[in-house]
Amino acid sequence: MSVSPLPGHMLQKPRSRSRPGAQPRSDSHCGPGVPGEVPSGHARPGASQGTAGTLSTTFRRAQATPAPELRTQKQLELKVAELVQFLLIKDQRKIPIKRSGILKHIIRDYKDVFPDLLKLAAERLHYVFGYKLVELEPKSNSYILINALEPVEEDAEVRGNQGTPTTGLLMIILGLIFMNGHSIPETEVWDFLRRLGVYPTKKHSVFGDPKKLITEDFVRQRYLVSRRIPHTDPVDCELQWGPRANLETSKMKVLKFVAKVHKQDPKDWPTQYCEALADEQSRVRPEPSGPAPTS
Asked: What is the CATH code of the structural domain delimited by 57-147?
């Protein structure tokens, strides 16, 4: 389901709007010592390769229905973000959301691509916010949001018994970090999240204060580590995986999350796949035993 990604592609920076092609699957075996190299994609000038783009691939697939007039990718992404915000706000009253209201207040002259926009909005609600968009009754043209505690199978371990909509956001950030080579500037994270309608300076209907949630709560909970980047003006920090993230999830689980969002295979990113595979093997390898006691 896609007209605009869940935002875009995790292999490119959030600012990049081009659709990076998945790396060709390699038939060679994963060799030792493969660093967290990030495959390059096509990015617009000035944007370095390797971060946020990937979730965005989804947006591009939803353009199956030809529109009578050309619309830019940015226009479609903004319309999906607007639709998601509308659904989240309307759901707070727990009253069914009518299709006529969506068309009147949000879709307007985008009626020709409404089914695609609704699909993309539903996908974003599912993966990012932990909600499932369902039609109240067949052909009722009324929708409600229900809590989907486990948006993907691979996310179950992170959620545990305390599933919350914030987990989807956390998985996206962990994915951005891993696909970018184990750290990512905070400014790039926000560039990416803005495409989801999540802003550092605006209160969010689901996440509350997103800035506090990411840079304080997730850091305090040890899911993330924040380090200041030297010689940056204004001051910028980079985010890395925290120790709790390594304990509660794994590189392979996060890579599968990214792949599922993009409807691709984890092996389509051979560098990250080899690293995740090595991580899985190290987790099951028994600890070396100590020296035998002397008699």
From this structure: 1.10.10.1200
